[in-house]
Amino acid sequence: MTRLLPRWFVERIDPVADEDELPVSTLELFFDLIFVFTVAQFTAIIAYDPLVGLLQSTLMFGFLWWMYAGYSWLTNVIPPQRTARRVLLLCAMAGWLVVALTVPSAFESGSVWIAVGMLAVVLVHGLMYLQAARSFGPVFIANLAAVAAVFAAELGPEGLWRYALWALAAAIVWSVPIWHGQRGLNLHPAHITERHGLVVLVALGESVVAIGIGARDLPVDADLLLAAVLGLAIAACMWWSLFVRELPATEHALTAAKDPVTRVRKVLVGLSYAFIPVLLGILVFAAGLKHAVGHALSPLDAESTWLLSGGVAAFLLGTAGLRLAMRLPRPWERLVLAAVVLALAPVGLVNTALQLAAVLVVLVAAIVLEGRAAAARTAPASH
């Protein structure tokens, strides 16, 4: 494969060996913003038609999230410190932009351009990654096969055919860890943790954007302000529940895993698989919040109440998966918390603000109790 590439490309792509010195670059942050624009399109789809929109978003997100995570792995071993790498990442960002712009029409009229955008994303990723790990070849082939499924979906008829082929694309890529032994891959703990955390952080910002979109052309009154402030407070609790302890502990757990294969598998389960419900949960919550803004003092429709509670519950389930993968304490607490938040959905049928306030109270109480439990666990060690 490398003989087919220009000499300057092969020579200038060299992975960094020192895992202690790999900061996240500003170009990677720029890359994350483009990807989150793609993710933001799903919020609009879900808000427009919660049931069908959630199905379509889940099928597309399966493949798209795999490739975003692949880029966080790519820049982990091949940091964009030289011109060639930066230009290639910018080309990939153009591919992501094409994907983002065509997401809304992928299941309606069909858009072959979403497949073209994904092909650019996969080609840049694969050709760069092969310079760091020859064992990536089979993964590259699987990614190309998934793109072929997307082309078939968009060029074929509407209906079940399109749904089935998007599901096939997601199944192809997520089957890779089953048959690929993960040998020959290595990841830097701090960088990979920060990259996954940053995309969640920007997605949480999308929930705030949803407030602004929902507030467009509405009078500034209690209906608007109450829902907006409560929605922001819930998003802040979601941030707290992941960033204050979980992600720092995740970095330590990955650092402690000295075997490269063990580390890669922890990242796969804890930061790739578990972050699917984390990110989808944020999108679903943002879609519900978009409906809630401006209607705080009145009942909410049933679909929106389930979007609000279901989104937060899915986020919490993802954090439970992270705890399990990294062997962090008390993952069952997040499962119980998710069940309680989901059970609060019918409250919105009475009053929107009441549901938002109830979810907020439960989250704050859980954060306080978890903080006290963590302090109790560390107290004996300090003595």
UniProtKB/TrEMBL annotation:
Keywords: Membrane, Transmembrane, Transmembrane helix. It comes from the Bacteria. The keyword Transmembrane applies. The chain crosses the membrane at residues 29-48, 54-75, 87-106, 112-129, 136-153, 159-177, 198-218, 224-243, 264-286, 306-325, 356-375. This is Low temperature requirement protein A.
